[in-house]
Each structure stands twice: as structure tokens, then as C-alpha cells.
Amino acid sequence: MHIELVIAKLITMLLGFSIAYQAYRGYRRNDSQPMFYVAVGFVFISFGAVIEGILFDVLGLSLFDAGTVATIIVAIGMLSVLYALYGGNHRETRG
Fold first, then answer.
1. Closest CA to 32 of 40, 45, 14, 15
2. Lowest mean pLDDT among 20-29, 36-45, 85-94
3. How far is residue 33's CA from residue 37's CA, in Å, rounded to a whole number?
């Protein structure tokens, strides 16, 4: 794997985890259930951004199989964020 690609993937993962951490802080500070789902979603999305290379280079999966696994992980993260935006009965009281 090219070092530039590894660096770009690591930066992407760190940015995603930073967003997830801030969303988690928002969840804890405001007891906001949607922010929890945003945090979980960004963890999955960030992990999915780097897992393809690991599965391909380290574990020896085919590019197709590694890409499929990575896409499923990213899709789970996006579903979590989508749920935070539209799903469930997220009632927040304002006082």
C-alpha cells in the first residue's frame, strides 16, 4: 500500500473519530439521544474508511470482498446518522 494513501486514510479516520467524540460529548452534555446515534454512526463510517485496506493487505481478502465489507460498515454508520435525523421518538424537552 502506498504511504500517501495510508496517511490519507488515517487522517480521514481521525477526523471521523473527532466528529464522533464531539457528538458523544453533545449527547452527554444535553442528554440528546440523536447525538448518540450521530456519534455511533461516525465511528462506523470512520472505521469503514480504513478497513478495506486492512482486509485486503493484511488478511488477504479479495478486493471485492474487502470492498463489500467496508461498504456494509459505512452503510451501517450512515443508517445510524439517518436514524438520528429522522427516526425514532426523539423528544427533547426544553426548559
1. 40
2. 85-94
3. 7
Length of the chain: 95
Torsion, CA 62, CA 68, CA 74, CA 77, rounded to 10:
-130
Alpha helices in 31-86 (DSSP H): 33-53, 63-86
CA distance 17 to 76: 16
pTM: 0.84
CB 7 within 8 A of CB 13: no
57-74: pLDDT as tens digits: 889 899 999 999 999 999
Q: Tell me how far apart the alpha carbons of residues 20 and 24 are, in angstroms, rounded to a whole number.
A: 6
Give CA–CA dist 63/79, Å, rounded.
Answer: 24
